[in-house]
Structures are given as C-alpha cells and as structure tokens.
Amino acid sequence: CGLGVPMGRKLEDLVARLQGGYAVGGRVCLKDDELTLEDARTLGSCLRRHAPLTALDLSENPQLGDDGVAVVCEGLRTNHTVTTLYLQRVGATSRSVDHVLGILQDNATLTWVFLDENDQITQDDVIRLKRKLASRVQAV
Q1: Scanning 81, 87, 103, 108, which has the fewest C-beta atoms within 10 Å of its C-beta?
Q2: Nearest alpha carbon to residue 69 among 51, 49, 86, 52
C-alpha cells in the first residue's frame, strides 16, 4: 500500500530512497512490515532529516510498542510534511498517547493520528488526543 515503495522489506527501500535524495511523496505504508524498535530508530532519524511524506502507516507492527512510537514521534517533532499517522495495532498504551501529545506543540502539521485497535489505550486517552487535534484543525 506504499507510494513508490515496493513490497517486501519496505522500510529498507524507503530509507535508501530518502537518503539517496529521491522524492518520496504521499502516503507510505509500512503496515505489517515486522518493524522493530531499531527500525523505528532508523525511521525516526529519516523523518527528522528528510521525509517529504504526507501520511505514514505503521499499523499492524505490534512489536513497536510505546518505545517505537516514542522514537517515531521524536522524528516527527521537526517534520513539517506528515499530516497523518496510522498507529493501529502497534502495541501502544497511554504512554504512546503521551508521546504523540508531547510533540504536537512543536509539530504544527500533524493533524490526524489513528491509534485505534490498541487494547491498552483508554477512552480518556482518546478524548485527550481528540481535543488536542480538534483544537489544531480549528486553528488552521
């Protein structure tokens, strides 16, 4: 489901394209790509330096967990192109919601975050995130 990223080990190809200066725009899907915390570190680094992406789908990578989400979020802190982040079924908890909320004051571009289907995220977490994102959309 990625744009310009072939099937298989998609992260490696995406990183090579970004580091090589090739334009990769639109939505990039790394869904169900068996991403690890180390992969998240690599991706976070690319997001800080490159990544002309508008949407990033990391769904169905349950081994990412809160630590992987934290690293990706740090990469997005200074990214000004990603507007949509998909994190369904990544083993996220309330800590992941805190990580996302923590970067929103520095990242004015991110306006859609999908964290559904993570069993450890509470209704209160969802409400906190929705309120913050809704205030950003209204401000635009």
Answers
A1: 108
A2: 86
* C-alpha closest to that of 85 among 51, 112, 125: 112
Burial code of 112-127, b = ≥16 C-beta within 10 A, e = fewer? ebebeebeebeeebee
Q: How far apart are CA 63 and CA 35, in angstroms?
A: 7
Q: Is 140 helix (H, G, I), strand (E, B) or coil?
A: coil
What's the confidence (pLDDT) of residue 48?
Answer: 83
The rounded distance, in Å, linking the Cα atoms of 2 and 67 is 24
Which parts of the chain sit beneath pLDDT 70? 1-10, 14, 17-25, 50-51, 137-140
